[in-house]
Amino acid sequence: MKEAAIICVDDERVVLNGLQSQLTRDFGSEYIIEMAESAEEALELIEDLREEGRDVPVIITDQMMPGMKGHELLIEVHQSSPQTFKILLTGQSDISAITEAVNSANLYRYIAKPWDGTDLILTVKEAIRSFYQDKQLEIQNKLLERHNRELEQLVEERTQELRIEKEKSEELLLNILPNETAQELIERGEATPRHYNQVTILFTDFQAFTKSASDITPQELVSTLNECFTAFDEIIGRHDLEKIKTIGDAYMCAGGIPTENTTNAVDAVAAAIEIRDWITHWNAARQLAGKDTWEARLGLHTGELIAGVIGKKKFAYDVWGDAVNLAARMETNSEAGKINISEATYQLVKDRFNCASRGKIEVKGKGLMEMYFVD
Prior knowledge:
Blueprint: E1 4-9, H1 13-27, E2 31-36, H2 39-51, E3 58-62, H3 70-80, E4 85-90, H4 95-105, E5 109-112, H5 117-154, H6 159-176, H7 179-188, E6 194-206, H8 209-214, H9 218-238, E7 241-247, E8 250-255, H10 264-288, E9 296-310, E10 316-320, H11 322-332, E11 339-342, H12 343-349, E12 355-363, E13 367-374
Parallel strand pairs: 1-2, 1-3, 3-4, 4-5, 9-11
Antiparallel strand pairs: 6-8, 6-9, 7-8, 9-10, 11-13, 12-13
């Protein structure tokens, strides 16, 4: 089988060189890293690769380019190669362009410039994994559809059994997605992405996790993470927050979606306090048992974003927008056992919680930002 290709598109050569260097280091032994300096060149490149019989699992494009813009390119790519995972890389937060890319190109991820190298590599790895998983699922689904047609022709009395299986599938969907979104997907066959003016995003991350993980067995690692994330799930459920996803040892949730409300900042901070306190008691018990402690950082930011369902065979509810990146920055700039919030969140919760100003702190790609610790 011929090597697959990862395509990067940007009208600035220095950006392309940076992308090529990062991607070649992590993927160069298995994938071809192709560069294009315009959307038109990228479309020709994709056509050539497809004629050669090569997969194109991922395309990464800048938004602001002469001629065809990044989101317009992704829409064109989606028409000819809908399986390709599309990543929009831009220095400007263009909500309308992101919305159009989500609606018309099944946008996988929006990453702001300057990008975080680790975040970019993890995103590409997950996209490649999902691409080939979807490809395998597509083959399996075609075989399953043919098998189902044959069964329906031969055994009409199985109608009742099939109806029960359908109900199980819908029940599973309700467990995966927010109830409102799942119902829309069941009734209409699709869920429309929505723009929200005020959502509070909460990130947690275990400090020095890599070292801790290397000292225990894989089984113990997974069991410990499951214990923590199960507790987090229960806590955020009590505070009306929606779990978005976990990435390794990171946990992400949000308040104010899919049903809008004005209390999401207070709800999220209250949940963060409960998570922090749970970790404190949990670590105390681990110390008594002679086990290593896992200290966590927490970060929150409130802002506007887009939320919706991605995927066709394997659904996932996700969020996009600069607010997500800022919430992640709040977490990385926090400290072990601390809850770090942005100015936007502080203004919404200052009358409910005691907060200590940290002053202005340098944030990568954003400059100086006011931050506060929740006491």
